[in-house]
Specification:
This protein is an alpha/beta fold. It contains eight helices and 14 strands.
């Protein structure tokens, strides 16, 4: 199945406690994949406090497998999100459950291999970071990484770089926004960053550019997919929905076979990326990280023409 590992927290939109919604990059990706009909699991540590119960019910309602998930008495982290003029993040997350994962044993999920996905805060925070990096390093299925950088939250760049590199050494699929790349590799063009990543273990790089769409890079070349025309409410969780949709499409086509990733053509990737862009657009049309269900992708949404390079 698709195993998304990392943080589960609550997003407090605009600082209004009345608008608390479950969040966390990897958890959102698990929700997105499950809602699109893929077998998806979440691996992380979720508090037993009231906010943790909200998160747990949210995942259960969306069909996420929780058999390999830990519970703990530590409090739930809160991401305070200001939406205007553009999303900004402030974390209330010292000694919270998401940082305290003790182990990551996928045996409860049945015989693999599985697709493993990580990134965002779970990649570098607390004890969880080492547990998940070791899991990625020994994983025998396809490994996906979305760094989903939160500069305001990263107070130790060296630590972040260390865990990012550990994941890169195990990674087959890499998704990042253009803003992520600018922070990770300042002054470099996305094409240059993608070329370097593809020269190593990574098979596919996907760079999202918000309203400008996305670019997919493989050894065959690269292509552009346009964003959809939609009335945007906020962009929280859009990238996670994009990733969750990509993972669901890969599961349908390849299962967790990392070696088969190279068999996908640019035409295959266009179809995968266009579906992911539709999922992200629907998420942007409503409050918070609320990925679409499969039937919602059948709704006709105006799409500008895609371009290929």
């Amino acid at each position: 199945m698709i195993v998304c590992c990392g943080e589960a927290l609550v997003d407090v939109l605009d600082g209004d406690a009345a608008r608390w919604v479950p969040g966390g990059g990897s958890m959102n990706a698990a929700i997105a994949a499950a809602r699109l009909g893929a077998p998806a699991a979440f691996v992380g540590r979720v508090s037993v406090d009231a906010e943790g119960e909200l998160i747990w019910r949210h995942m259960e309602h969306s069909g996420v497998d929780l058999r390999a998930c830990e519970r703990g008495t530590e409090p739930t982290a809160r991401s305070i999100i200001s939406l205007a003029p553009r999303p900004s993040f402030r974390l209330e997350g010292d000694n919270t459950a998401d940082t305290a994962l003790r182990s990551a044993d996928l045996a409860a999920l049945g015989r693999g291999p599985h697709i493993l996905h990580g990134g965002t805060l779970g990649m570098f925070r607390g004890r969880t970071a080492d547990v998940l990096a070791r899991l990625a390093g020994r994983h025998d299925g396809l490994v996906s990484l979305d760094p989903n950088v939160r500069p305001a939250i990263i107070d130790d760049r060296d630590r972040w770089d260390h865990f990012h590199q550990r994941w890169l050494s195990a990674c087959d699929l890499y998704r990042a926004s253009d803003e992520d790349l600018s922070w990770i590799w300042p002054g470099r063009e996305a094409d240059d960053c993608a070329a370097e990543l593809l020269a190593g273990r990574i098979t596919t790089v996907m760079v999202t550019r918000g309203s400008q769409g996305a670019t997919v890079y493989t050894a065959e070349g690269h292509l552009d997919v346009s964003a959809l025309s939609i009335d945007t409410v906020d962009t929280v969780g859009a990238g996670d929905s994009f990733v969750g949709s990509v993972l669901a499409s890969l599961w349908d086509r390849l299962g967790a076979d990392r070696s088969a990733l190279v068999s996908l053509s640019l035409a295959d990737w266009r179809a995968i990326a266009e579906r992911a862009a539709a999922a992200a657009a629907i998420t942007c049309s409503r409050h918070g990280a609320d990925p679409p269900f499969a039937h919602e992708l059948e709704t006709n949404v105006e799409r500008p023409a895609s371009g290929g390079r």
